[in-house]
Design brief:
alpha+beta, 3-stranded antiparallel beta sheet, elongated
């Protein structure tokens, strides 16, 4: 029978477990919640942007800088970690900072740990948007990570990219190396692989994880767990089935494009044609009435003598 654990032993084991979880979670901080990628509002121009040493728009220095590593705005001097000693004095503003990170463009406090570890562990070291290829220094917004392919995205392209990320660069779900159905999908290469072709000699599979992509080494995911779709061509011979008038391929593409582009204008043109036709009819009616009136005026004083229509025809017949 094992010995019964005492209360102090249980507390010590729980404390060690919590510390272990904290250390593990500290290394995997969400990019959107990291202090170097925090949201900041400029004191001068009131524009919201990423945490920076200088404003992206007006280049002004902020009154309360935020440390890119620990996220603090005031140094309390509770430990001897500070490079610049300030015993009994709380330091804020530029008295708290010690450096500027070249990768995230944010202040780093004068703590020895932050100064020595942030440059190597900065999550924005190679932060370049996969869509527009802009870095941290090229735009003022925050940096995000795609939840599918885990590539960096800027604030302008994050929603558009994630909406079209689960699209394969193929027309079927078959494996790129054989003709079997691809059970694993790589969202970076946008390709499917079967069980046999996910085994690679270069990238080894870790225990308890999905097999890596044989092309790029990124962790694959099962295709059935994703909302994957195949590539659809908007231009070319495979644009869809034939329409009622028999147009398909390039003809159908240009026809649909012209109908979408000039659909509203053709509608307005039809209305204008109808109005013009009505005006022409009204003008013709007015011209016809005027001509009838003129002709009646011409024959009002005309005397044709005794005719059948005048009622004198029977007298003429009797005389004869």
């Amino acid at each position: 029978m094992p010995k019964k654990k005492t209360g102090a032993r249980k507390k010590a084991e729980n404390r060690r477990e919590r510390e272990k979880q904290l250390r593990a979670s500290r290394g995997t901080i969400d990019l959107a919640k990291h202090p170097c990628n925090a949201s900041m509002e400029c004191d001068k121009c009131q524009r919201r942007q990423k945490n920076r040493a200088f404003c992206y728009f007006c280049n002004s220095v902020q009154k309360l800088p935020i440390c890119a590593q620990c996220g603090k705005t005031k140094c309390m001097m509770k430990s001897s970690d500070c490079v610049i000693k300030h015993a009994g004095v709380y330091s804020t503003g530029l008295a708290m900072v010690g450096a500027i990170c070249d990768f995230c463009e944010a202040w780093v406090c004068h703590g020895r740990k932050c100064l020595s570890t942030h440059a190597c562990a900065c999550p924005l070291t190679d932060a370049e948007c996969v869509e527009c290829e802009r870095g941290v220094w090229d735009h003022g917004g925050r940096i995000f990570s795609c939840s599918f392919c885990h590539n960096f995205l800027c604030e302008d392209d994050q929603f558009e990219h994630q909406a079209s990320c689960q699209v394969l660069e193929a027309e079927t779900f078959k494996c790129v190396s054989c003709n079997r159905l691809g059970q694993h999908s790589c969202l970076r290469c946008k390709a499917c692989f079967c069980d046999d072709h996910t085994r690679s000699k270069v990238f080894k599979q870790e225990k308890g994880k999905q097999p890596p992509c044989p092309k790029c080494g990124h962790e694959t995911q099962e295709t059935k767990d994703l909302s994957m779709s195949t590539r659809s061509l908007k231009f070319g011979r495979q644009t869809g089935g034939e329409e009622g008038d028999g147009a398909s391929g390039y003809d159908a593409y240009w026809k649909n494009l012209s109908s979408d582009k000039y659909g509203d204008s053709s509608y307005h043109d039809e209305e204008e044609d109808e109005d013009e036709a009505e005006d022409d009819e009204e003008e013709e009616d007015e011209v016809g009435k005027d001509s009838d009136a003129e002709s009646s005026d011409l024959f009002t004083n005309l005397n044709l003598g005794r005719t059948y229509a005048s009622g004198y025809a029977h007298y003429e017949e009797q005389d004869n």
